[in-house]
Amino acid sequence: MGTGILTIDLDAIAANWRALARLSRGETGAVVKANGYGCGAAEVASRLAREGARSFFVATAEEGAALRKALGPGPAINVFSGHMASDTGLIRDHALTPMLNSPEQAARHRTALPDAPYGVQLDTGMNRLGMEAPDWGASRAGLETGPLTLVMSHLACADDPAHPMNAAQLAAFTKMTAGVSAPRSLSATGGILLGADYQFDLTRPGVGLYGGQPFAQARPVVRLSLPVVQVRDVAFGETVGYSASFTAGRKTRIATVSAGYADGLIRYMSNTAQLYANENICRLAGRVSMDLLTVDVTDLPEVPDHLDILCPQQTVDQLAEAAGTIGYEILTSLGRRYKRRYIGA
Ligand SMILES: *Cc1c(COP(=O)(O)O)cnc(C)c1O
Asked: Where is the active site (predicted)?
């Protein structure tokens, strides 16, 4: 078989959710936007619903509609982008809960679907999504008389516990939501780890569920095994790959494996990232191409039929470092060509 095998451990995702739930004082939700951070929104959310999760979060109404088909009626499906102009049908037909981001969205939702539940997203300093304090002040009384299910905001710097933005946003959120009737939510993975003050009634972990930083105790979730297509010996001084960017400094054995930047293995990893044959490290030799990697396997006693690029020895965050990015981007870039296998479905 010529494609990589992506193994997604739903037992590990469930364990990570329970661990974050133990750290949280209120309810623990789950963020499954971007196809569950590349791991499969339907599979992840169905498993977490069985673990007891009742509140899910997605980025768009389209994602919410697909998730409702997977989950069936019951769990709340909250949409961060709120109620966009063309979302009314999806919100109504799939019982989605938009997080209203502006007075315009609030007016649209209350007019189009007067009885449909909604949340409100507040901006507490990130300046990305959410109502500013004056808009919230002006519309709060009206919004609190309807089926308001959640008031939320998002932290910009929660992965850095020492950052002064954290306390500033906590103070702003506390002030803006004082006396509010609905449940409150401020924290994603990073905010949960900042402690009880940041947790309010509902938390929204994403990346920590999928084994990523800043949740250092997370169990790894993904293994990516890439098949070896061909092995050759390269003489001292010969070069490998596009632009001849790797030159053999010794007699070198090169394994060509099936996966490349079209599968989310970012080209910036060229000549830098490592693959694993069990515990043995093998370095990329040359450029990442669209469908192939070339790997220095000279020091392996035997070349296996697969090499791992994500495994317990190399987490998404460690691979991200070789790619100049973050674990989130490694996860959400995981290619669609891989054969996906689930543990614990
Ligand atoms: C993506 C997102 C989350 C989840 O964040 P993680 O850092 O992955 O835990 C929570 N809330 C909002 C508003 C988000 O956009």
From this structure: 33 (proton acceptor), 242 (proton acceptor)
**Strand partners for 99:** 119
Q: How far is CA 243 from CA 239, 260, 289, in A?
A: 9, 16, 11
Q: Distance from the CA of 31 to the center of ligand 1, in angstroms?
A: 7
pTM of structure: 0.97
User: Using the 8-state DSSP alphabet, how is residue 332 labeled?
Assistant: H
* Ligand 1 pocket member 122 (CB < 6 A): no
Instruction: Read off the pLDDT of residues 316-340 as tens digits, 9 standing for 90 and up.
Output: 999 999 999 999 999 999 999 999 9
Residue nearest to atom 12 of ligand 1 (CA): 154
Q: Which residue has the tokens 């080209």?
A: 267
Rounded to whole angstroms, the Cα distance separating 41 from 51 reads 15
Ligand 1: which of 80, 131, 202 to mutate, judged by most atoms within 8 Å of the beta carbon? 80
Structural domains of the chain, ranges and CATH numbers in brackets: 10-210 (3.20.20.10), 222-343 (2.40.37.10)
* Spatial contact of 263 and 292, defined as CB atoms under 8 Å apart: no
* Active site positions, annotated: 33, 242
Tokens of residue 89, six digits:
């049908």
Give pLDDT tens digits for 144-162. 999 999 999 999 999 999 9
Q: Is 1 exposed, middle or buried (0-12, 13-18, 19+ CB in 10 A)?
A: exposed
